Amino acid sequence: MSTISRRSFLRGSAFVAGSAALGLNGLFGISRAFAQDMSGENDDLQTIINLAATAELFASTHYLAAINGDLGLAQTQVDYLKAAFISERDHYDLLVSLGAEPVVTEFYVPDGLFADQALFSQITEVAETTFVAAYLAATRIFAEMGETAFAVTTAQISGVEAEHRALVRQIGMRLPNDRSYQAFQFANVSGAVPVLQPFLDGSGEGFVGPVAPPTDAEVTAIRAEASALGYNSETLPYAAMM
Question: What is the mean pLDDT of residues 25-30?
């Protein structure tokens, strides 16, 4: 992937909060295929969980490819990614149990992503920042709906995605804890689609794929390492505690 393409992608992602003014076709030359009409109304429950499940499936696909890639990471950093993988699969399994159906099940990534530590860190930060903001949007919607259990649960997930964001910034040798508040970028979960769409359909310049999601055997193998990693598998989503 060329330097210009990489810079353009990151710049476009950083300013996605202004995409409403540009229109969904204003970023990356994307279509509206995966986006709900942004009429000012809240996303409905099915849209929220479908898009969230898609993001979680992408995240676990992304982290597994990084674990198996050629990034030259220290073992501690690989362990970070394995723990992130487990949490993303936990989120995905929760959403599927609620009836979510991912929009797509194969994904695309910038060419050379899993052999370039700096690029991996930058692109993963874009993705995780987007996930944080999308879950904050879901929290707002559920709070307005009076769905307290769902609102607290999406806030819990947002907090974990923010941890992942900090870890990938550390991998890229950038200050991990660089803000007082996570960015509230989208009114709706579907507002995150312009950032994520190149990963969903390969429409971004220099994107390659598709990359298949983890198999059940791959998920089981990494889950088996949870105890050795020191991963806490006992914390429950608030919705399951009610």
Answer: 31
Task: Determine, yes or no, domain membership for 96.
Answer: yes
Instruction: Work out how many domains the chain is built from and give that number.
Output: 1
Instruction: Assess whether the previous peptide bond of 210 is cis (omega < 30° from 0).
Output: yes
Residue 238 forms part of a structural domain: no
Full 3-state SS string of 66-123: HHCCCCCCCHHHHHHHHHHHHHHHHHHHHHHHCCCCCCCCCEEEECCHHHCHHHHHHH
Domain that holds residue 47: 43-228
Residue 5 lies in a domain: no
User: What does the alpha-carbon distance between residue 122 and residue 50 come to, in Å, rounded to a whole number?
Assistant: 26
Establish if 87 belongs to a structural domain: yes
Which tens digit of pLDDT belongs to each residue from 68-82?
Answer: 999 999 999 999 999
State in Å, rounded, how far the first CA of the chain is from the last one: 47
Contact between 104 and 119 under an 8 Å Cβ cutoff? The reply is: no
Cα torsion at 5, 6, 8, 9 (round to 10°)?
A: 110
Q: 107: which 2 tokens?
A: 């994904």
Q: Taking residues 96-121, what's their average pLDDT?
A: 96
Handedness of CA 54, 55, 60, 66 (dihedral sign): positive
Among residues 39, 3, 64, which one has the least CA distance to residue 215?
64
**24 alpha-carbon distance from chain centroid:** 19
